[in-house]
Write a structure and sequence with these properties.
The protein is of the alpha/beta class and 575 residues long. The protein has 22 helices and 24 strands. InterPro entries: Amidohydro_3 (IPR013108), Metal-dep_hydrolase_composite (IPR011059), Metal_Hydrolase (IPR032466), YtcJ-like (IPR033932).
């Protein structure tokens, strides 16, 4: 029986004058209109332990979603009026729910390609290294390149791999295997020959060709020297790159990653065109077919800044709900593991080496100045203490010239700093985009290469950066390390690398809350997406992960190692 007829019967039974009942049809109309006009959630999350990453309401029990966005967050009574007959109800029975993780620094398509190639990550001795490559060679025909990477000699504590390791197992196949940080790689003799590298080939600016005691190239190339080989490797096919996007996206979803900041297929020695080709041929292609699985914020090579500025003027930053155009990126130095991070003092284990300044800083400053004038966000790779100081000085000069605005300059990695440098990030509003899991591979190497005192005073200064007012953005640099936010969060909290029975530099441990923010709201802030992502707040995209922990106490005492489910746009994307 309709609301109006119910009310009419009640009024008549109560002896109310009939003139009052003459208005009853309008009650039916009002009730019907209200039911049709009110918002009804498509899906609600109930009985959950929701960490929102929103300071105005840190925790909640329920959440309502419609059209891929969050309608309301709170307790059951808060969202009860949004539940309709067709609303899908998810009862999580206390399970912890977090905002979808944002990885602040990946190379997404490279990561996907790596999963499709020879993966040397985690290899702990020469024998396993050689065996892995041998298996890959068996699948190739003579002349085909064998590609892969991810190796890290710090895991086996031995010599760097050389061409001699590869020549007997791949005499008819050129081989190129990059180190985990992609600032060094090893080629076999056939690859060196194809690339024209001989004992007389000079070191290029910003790189080096390592040689044996006889003066012959030993197969190891550092930073810009890698270009000599990379330029001879056939380009990945379009089909390979598209498949790599799907492989990488599925992998990210298994780890709870719903958004990535993609620095592209651009690194020292690589073409600046790769990132632009991937935008049009891979990302926009997938988007046009409705095949995107995670959101991407794309950064482009700094030399192409004017091209990016024009794109943003024409199209804006948001190309779709999946693709956001970020800013520009370049390199100041190399990496510690490759002995090319730029330092104020020489390497402890190589007293004549101070690292490599990859770029001419006059050019870098000028390009940054003009990019900033065009309103672009700028991100510069800096690992060594001198490189970080030089980039901070450059940023300060740009601000002095162009004036104060919300520009959110970034330094990618910020791994090794002088103690006096950490406060500058907060004071100068520069975002340290850091990778906690790099510490797992770097800790022992840093003590060897920097000396214990210097390493402990300035390595991975997460808490010092926070104390200085900086906002940490967490990432993986995948495929340098695996894309795994839950592991990175635990690393930042505990700082216990493999083989250590104690925290490495315990004063730099961060709280669980700060670590979670590093992969959620602070990561969103670091790429100007904090109005759309990063917290479970009304109006934002309904991207979230469900963990196996049944209470916040359980999660806080022992953060989960895996996600149970990943939701994007309010829809389950994994498993």
């Amino acid at each position: 029986m309709a609301f109006g007829r119910n009310l009419a019967f009640f009024l008549a039974a109560s002896g109310v004058a009939l003139f009052a009942i003459t208005f009853l049809p309008s009650f039916d109309s009002l009730w019907s209109s209200w039911r049709k006009g009110r918002q009804v959630a498509e899906m609600v999350v109930l009985n959950a332990t929701i960490y929102t990453s929103d300071a105005s309401l840190p925790f909640a029990e329920a959440m309502a979603v419609r059209d891929g966005r969050i309608l309301r967050v709170g307790d059951y009574s808060t969202i009860q009026d949004l539940i309709g007959d067709s609303t899908y109800k998810l009862n999580f029975n206390g399970n912890v729910v977090l905002p979808g993780f944002i990885d602040s620094h990946v190379h997404l398509i490279i990561g996907g390609l790596q999963l499709m190639r020879v993966d040397l990550g985690g290899i702990r001795n020469k024998e396993d290294f050689v065996a892995k490559v041998t298996e890959a060679v068996k699948e190739k025909t003579p002349g085909q390149w064998v590609l892969g990477g991810g190796w890290n000699i710090d895991l086996w504590g031995g010599h760097y791999p050389e061409a001699s390791w590869l020549d007997n197992i791949a005499p008819q196949n050129p081989v190129w295997l990059s180190r985990m940080d992609r600032h060094m790689g090893v080629a076999n003799s056939l690859a060196l020959k194809i690339s024209g590298i001989t004992r007389d080939t000079p070191d290029p600016a910003g790189g080096s060709i390592l040689k044996n005691s006889d003066g012959e190239p030993n197969g190891l190339l550092v930073d810009s020297a890698m270009e000599l080989v990379l330029n001879t490797i056939p380009e990945e096919s379009l089909e390979e790159r598209r498949e790599a996007l799907f492989v990488a996206s599925r992998h990210g979803l298994t780890r709870g990653v719903t958004t990535v900041v993609d620095m592209g297929r651009f690194f020292t020695g690589a073409s600046v065109e790769n990132s632009w080709l991937d935008l049009s041929e891979v990302y926009q292609w997938a988007d046009s077919l409705g095949k995107m699985m995670i959101r991407v914020c794309l950064f482009f090579p700094l030399p192409t800044w004017s091209r990016l500025a024009e794109l943003i003027r024409d199209k804006g930053h948001r190309l779709s709900k999946w693709i956001h155009v970020g800013g520009v990126k370049y390199f100041a130095d190399g990496s510690l593991g490759s002995n090319s991070a730029l330092l104020h003092e020489a390497y402890e284990d190589n007293p004549i080496n101070y690292g490599i300044q990859i770029v001419d800083f006059n050019w870098l400053s000028n390009a940054t100045l003009h990019s900033d004038m065009s309103g672009l966000q700028v991100a510069i790779h800096a690992i060594g203490d001198k490189a970080n100081d030089m980039v901070l000085d450059m940023y300060s000069s740009v601000v002095s010239t162009n004036g104060i605005r919300d520009r959110r300059f970034r330094i990618e990695h910020a791994q090794h700093l002088l103690p006096s440098t950490a406060p500058r990030f907060g004071q100068e509003r520069v975002i340290p985009s850091v990778q906690p899991d790099h510490m797992l591979d770097d800790a022992a190497a840093a003590e060897k290469k920097l000396g214990i005192k210097r390493a402990h005073q300035g390595s991975y200064m997460f808490q010092s950066l926070l104390d200085g007012g900086a906002r940490l953005a967490f990432g993986s640099d995948w495929p340098v390390t695996d894309i795994n936010p839950l592991r990175a969060i635990k690393t930042a909290i505990h700082r216990r690398p493999p083989g250590f029975d104690h925290a490495w530099i315990p004063t730099e441990r961060v709280s669980l809350d700060d670590a979670l923010k590093g992969h959620t709201i602070s990561a969103a802030y670091a790429c100007f997406l904090d109005e759309e992502l990063g917290s479970l707040s009304p109006g934002k995209f309904a991207d979230f992960v469900v963990l196996p922990a049944n209470s916040w106490t359980e999660f806080a005492e022992n953060p989960s190692n895996f996600v149970s489910a990943t939701f994007v746009n309010g829809k389950q994307a994994y498993p």
